[in-house]
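User: Please predict the structure of the protein below. I'd like the answer in structure-token form so I can feed it into my own downstream comparison script.

Assistant: Understood. Taking the following sequence of 404 residues as input:
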Amino acid sequence: KKKVVEEEPVAKAKTTPKMKVVKEEPVAKATKAMTTKDAEEEGDDAEAMLAELQEKLPGALKEHYYNDATKTWDLQGMRDDLEPLQKKSSAAATKSTNKEKGSPTPEEVLAQLLEISPRSTKEDYWDAKSKTWDMQGLQDDLALASNPEKLFEELLALSPDVLKEDYFDGKSWDDDGLRSDLEVSRGEPSSNTEEEEMLEELMSISKGVTKGSYFNDKNGKWDTSGLEEDLERARKRAEEPKKEAKPKASKDQLKAEAMFAELCSLEKHQKKDYFDDENQEWDVDGLKEDLTLARAKASNKGGKKGGKDKGAEKFAELQKLQPANEEDYFDSGEWDMEGLEEDLKIAREGSFLKDPERMMTLLKGLASRTSREDYYDKAAKKWDMAGLQEDLQLVMGDKQLAVK
């Protein structure tokens, strides 16, 4: 009987799966119910996000984020579009709150920092991607920059050999020098754009200027005051009207001026009659001819100066026959009558036209580029007399050659 009684519970235990089937039904219903509820909540969230998105971005539409075929929302896309708009609104709200409370805005703090430390930049504290400010960093750097003592302590920790008196004279701090040296000690690139621009301008105005005259490579410091002073002086010099340098007078010009002065002492003449102001040239031939005539007239008036009168007349005649320089016959107030008469005789007889050496000398005097080889054949030892005479005639122009 005990065995029969003990088997009954075992048989009952085999029927337990029926219990499991009964329990599964409410679980399935509960899961289905939760799924429906989650979908409803998700739809509510999506609708709320869409409403906020449309408020901040009027162009946003439901069809941009909701798939009517699958009845699903692009929640991630909505969040991505909504996030930057929320941050912008939050920043604006914070700025407005700070303004109401009297707290400075990041722009105001940066402006204060730039007044003290011009080398600071907006990019050091502004993240363009997230459109946010590093307000704490801004405030910390402003506090540090406002206290030169702290800056010097930092510099001293980096460069123990620096002295306080190099930056503090007992009354005020050399803020620029302190910050510049601190940047060098930190290993930061020093941005001396103003000094570089001033040096570039100075080098364009004054020759021989070098960077080494104003910049110390060892300590990385500029002699800003010296650079500014030199640049100011260079600017003033550049603004002054440039005085045109007078060209140095040649020997021929000096002789012409001396002849004109002598001519004016004998007769009244105007410089414009002999001097071309545009080309800065003298009419030497005309000046010599008129001076010879003026001397002749002056000699006629002198009575006792008959020798000078004859010399002037003979020289004037010689000039009509061939080119001649007065300096070759007139010296120290006296005419070389013997030489003058001899050359006049040769010119009258035209004997120089038979002397190729004399003609060559005369031609070369009138046309310096003329070469002896142009008229003389060394191999045949013969002169081209016709060519020499023809060229001499052309060079002399309207002067008449007396040919016997």
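That's the full token string. The first strand starts at residue 66 and ends at 67.
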